[in-house]
Amino acid sequence: MVGESYPGAADTLLIAKADLDRIIGHLRQALPNEGVGLIGVERIKRGGIVMAQSRRFYPGSNSKASPVRYEMDAHDLMSALRDIDREKWALGAIVHSHPHGPATPSATDIAEFLYPEALLVIASFAGSTVDVQAWKLERAGATWNPRNVPICHPID
User: Fold this and answer.
1) Which of 137, 77, 152 is nearest to 104 (CA)?
2) CA–CA distance, 70 with 119 (Å, rounded to integer)
3) Sorting pLDDT into bands at 50, 70 and 90, what band is 2?
4) The 3-state secondary structure of the chain, one letter per residue
C-alpha cells in the first residue's frame, strides 16, 4: 500500500544505517549549536502499522545558530518541502540535535511543534556515544504527549 495517505505521524521510522550515519554527521558538523534537517518519506501500512520509509535527508542550516534552539533556514526549508512534494513523498520527520541534553523532546520542542504528520528525530551528543530517538507527538486536549517510536534499519 505505498503511496496512500495515512493521517498523523508514523508508528515506526525505517531508515538505512548509512543514511542515519549521514544525518549524525550533518548534526555533528553543527556543534556546538543544534543542527537541523528534514526527512522525506514514503508512508507504508503493514498489519495496521504505519511506517515511514526514509527516502531522502534534507540537511538544513540552523538560522538561530544556538546550542539550545533551532530554526531551519527558510530557503533550506522551502527547497526541501518543494522536493518532497515533487517526489510525492511526505514530510516524515523533523530532525535536530541536543548538543548537551537528552534525545527527548524539550519543553520548547513541544511548545513549538507545528507538524503533527511528522516525527521528531532527536540526536543527543551529551554522552560518549550519540543517542538518536524518534518521537511521535500525540494531542491530548490542549497538550502534546510525546511517545517514543522505533527506528528500524531495513536490510538493503
Assistant:
1) 137
2) 16
3) very low
4) CCCCCCCCCCCEEECCHHHHHHHHHHHHHHCCCCCEEEEEEEEEEECCEEEEEEEEEEEECECCCCCCCCCECHHHHHHHHHHHHHCCCEEEEEEEEECCCCCCCCHHHHHCCCCCCCEEEEEECCCCCCEEEEEEEEEECCEEEEEEECEECCCC
Quick one: how far is CA 145 from the chain centroid? Answer: 16
Contact 9, 136 (CB under 8 A): yes
- Cell for 155? 536490510
Task: Tell me if 11 sits within 8 A of 49, measured CB to CB.
Answer: yes
Report, at the CATH architecture level, how domain 12-152 is classified. 3-Layer(aba) Sandwich (3.40)
pLDDT per position as a tens digit, 82-131: 999 999 999 999 999 999 999 999 999 999 988 989 999 999 999 999 99
C-alpha cell at position 28: 555533528
Which amino acid, one-letter code, is at 143? Answer: T
Q: Give the Cα separation of 18 and 46 in Å (integer).
A: 24
Domain boundaries, the chain: 12-152
Q: How far apart are CA 135 and CA 147, in angstroms?
A: 5
